[in-house]
C-alpha cells in the first residue's frame, strides 16, 4: 500500500481545526444573540437586494408592493425600505467573495432582508451567497410553508439552516486519486433551537403533530443526536405529538394521497430539508410558487426559492418572470415584522388574483409581465 502519511497528517490537523471551530460555534450559540423587537417600539429597516438574472426584475415588483402596503409606516418613519447594492455575480466575481464585505456590512445595518435569487458559479471555490448569508447572519431556521387547500395539504417545514452537511460543505478532505470525505455537524444548541422554533410554531398555530425527519438508522451520531434532542424539546409541548420518520419513506409519503394530508409541521436537518422542500413545492405547483424565510434571533432573510432563470434573460423574456415566490416571501416577511394585517391583505389578494385570473403570468410572452401582475395585485388589495 502506498504511503499517505503526509496526507493523513494534514487531514488530522484539518480535522482538529474543524472540531475546535465548531465547538466554539456551539458555545457562541449557547450564549445566545441579541433579539430585535418587532412590537412597534423600534424602527424597522428592510433591506432589499435584487440578486442576479430575473432576481432584480421580480424583486423590484415585490419592493413596489411593499412600498404600497407600508406607505403609512414609511411616511411616519417607522419603517425604512433600503436598497442594498453589490450582491451581483459580476461584483462578487470581481471581488472574489460570495458576499462582499461592504454589502454584508450594509445588510447587517438592516433588520430583515428581502433577497432575489443569486448565481452560484459551478465549480471553483466561491460559496453560494445564500449559504454565506445564512451563516453570517446566523439564520438557523429555514421556514417553508406549502399549501394546496383543495388537496387538504397544509405543511410547514422547519429546516435546520446553518449546520448539518452545509456548515463544512466546502471543507472536506481528499486523498487525490483515492478518496474524499465531507463532514456533517449536528450540535446540541443548533438542534435545540430549530426544534424549539418548530414546536413553538406548532403550539402558536394549534398544530397537533410534528414530524421529526432524519436518517438516524444510518447517520447514527448526527441524526441520532438530532432526533433525541427534538424529543427532549418535545417534552415541553405535551399537547403535541412528536413522530419519528425516516427521510426516504417521508419522500414517498408526500406523494401518497392517503396519508400526506395528516402531516402538519416538519423539523429536519439541513440537506434533507433542502431536498424535500423542493418536492413539497412541486406538489404545490412548482418551486416558483414557494416562498422561503431564513430566520435567526437578530436577523431574518426572505427569498424566492427558485434560481435566477438565466435562460429567460438570454431569451429576453425576463420581464415575464413569475413573481409569486418572492411575493410569498414578502408576505412571510411582513408577518415576521409584525405587520399581520398587511401580510393578510397580500395573501388574500394573491389568492383572489389566482382565482379570478384576470392577469396571468406564464413565464413567457403569451402571459402578462410581472409588472402587470403586480399592478393587478395592488388594485386587488385596494378592493379588500
Ligand atoms: C435552497 C437552495 C440553496 C440550498 C442553494 C442555492 C445553496 O437550494 O435554498 O434550498 O441548498 O440551501
Ligand atoms: Mg434547495
Q: How do the strands of the widest beta sheet line up side by side?
A: 2-1-3-12-11-4-5-10-8-9
Average predicted local confidence, pLDDT: 95
> What structural category characterises the helix and strand content?
alpha/beta
Number of domains: 2
Helix coverage percent? 40-55%
- CATH homologous superfamily title of the largest domain: Isopropylmalate Dehydrogenase
Regions with pLDDT < 50 over 5+ consecutive residues? none
CATH architecture of the largest domain: 3-Layer(aba) Sandwich
Layout of helices and strands, plus pairs?
Blueprint: H1 5-31, E1 44-49, H2 55-69, H3 71-75, E2 79-83, H4 89-95, H5 101-108, E3 112-115, H6 129-136, E4 141-148, E5 153-160, E6 173-175, E7 179-181, H7 188-204, E8 209-214, H8 222-234, E9 241-246, H9 247-253, E10 265-268, H10 270-284, E11 291-295, E12 300-304, H11 310-314, H12 324-336, H13 340-356, H14 370-383
Parallel strand pairs: 1-2, 1-3, 3-12, 5-10, 8-9, 8-10
Antiparallel strand pairs: 4-5, 4-11, 6-7, 11-12
Helix pairs in contact: 2-14, 7-8, 12-13, 13-14
The structure holds 3-isopropylmalic acid and magnesium ion.
3-isopropylmalic acid binds near residues 120, 128, 274 and 305.
Notes on the protein architecture:
The protein is α/β, with parallel strands linked by helices. It has two domains: 32-139 and 296-384, Isopropylmalate Dehydrogenase, CATH 3.40.718.10; 140-293, Isopropylmalate Dehydrogenase. It has 14 helices and twelve strands. The strands form two sheets. The chain has a ten-stranded mixed β-sheet, with helices on both faces. Strands 6-7 form a two-stranded antiparallel sheet. Strand 6 and strand 7 form a beta hairpin. The longest helix is centred in the N-terminal third of the chain and has 27 residues, at 5-31. 3-isopropylmalic acid binds next to helix 6. Magnesium ion binds at residues 274, 278.
